[in-house]
Design a protein that fits this description.
mainly beta; 5-stranded mixed barrel; Hypothetical upf0131 protein ytfp
């Protein structure tokens, strides 16, 4: 299944893994919200879990020719950090549309840190870029 990705931490534009993994491999990147989720702090990166909140991030659509390699690279990065890739029908774009997308949620049994009430990791992490 070919879907865009919702990213909310170190893969967002301006964050530490974005340029290494996504730069030059995407067709579009736009601000978006993941509904039905809560954001928690982690060991240098955040974890999203299902819940009654909203998480701020970016909807990233890979270039078709880069999709398979990017999916593999992201799966390797995220599975090693306690995430599982899940398809969700809960990503809202700036124009109000709801989009089906892949998102990496905390895998069952992963210990997550305190809740980030704002739902925006950039507003929380000391070394994260600031949202405008």
């Amino acid at each position: 299944m070919t879907l865009p990705f919702f990213v909310y931490g170190t893969l967002r534009p301006g964050a530490r893994h974005h340029d290494r993994l996504l730069l030059g491999r995407t067709a579009t990147e736009e601000d978006a919200l993941l509904t039905g989720a809560l954001l928690h702090d982690g060991p240098g990166y955040p974890y999203a879990v299902r819940g009654g909140g909203t998480v701020r991030g970016s909807l990233v659509t890979p270039l078709p020719e880069a999709y398979a390699a990017l999916l593999d690279a992201l799966d390797r990065l995220e599975s090693g950090a306690g995430y599982e890739r899940v398809a969700v029908d809960a990503v809202r774009t700036g124009d109000g549309a709801t989009v089906r997308a892949w998102v990496y949620l905390a895998a069952p049994g992963t210990a997550v840190g305190p809740l980030i009430a704002s739902g925006d990791w950039f507003s929380h992490a000391p070394d994260a870029p600031r949202t405008p």
